[in-house]
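hey so i finally got around to running the thing on that chain from the lab meeting. sorry it took forever, my laptop kept dying and i had to restart like 3 times. anyway pasting the input first so we r on the same page abt which one it is
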Amino acid sequence: MSHNPLSQQPPWGQPPASGGPSPYTPPTPQPERPKWARKRILIPAALMVFSIGMVAGSDGETKTDTAASKKAAPAATVTATVTATPAPAATETVRAEPEPAPTVTKTKTVRVAVAPAAGGSDDGSGSGGSAFYANCTEVRATGAAPIRTGDAGYGRHLDRDGDGVACE
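ok and heres what got predicted. didnt touch it at all, straight out
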């Protein structure tokens, strides 16, 4: 097995050069500046801020001790206004009588089928005779239910299932 040296830089970076300061030794302390150097800057800056505050806080008037400046402040005046409201207008009461409701009368029409006489002629056509029923309620009211094909009063409109027997 042969050893191939890496031709590119490793992913964690280049090792530090040996000529610089060692990361394992504490840094050397800086020489201390004289304390009067701070005062030389801070005191004039504080005076400048104070004077700017004085100028900004003044309203531009000079304060003098004269009689005009000691004048009393104006007093507030309250004015009340009363308005008269008009009396309410007279009201008129009107009574209305309701109209009587119309009377509704229900009329029920009942058709009665009369069975033909026993001696009647039957031509065998199966026309169902001369009786006519509008619905099965009428058939049941006359007592003719059920009606078969060929009986008096039979109609296809009464036979729901089409088996030849109506109003079953």
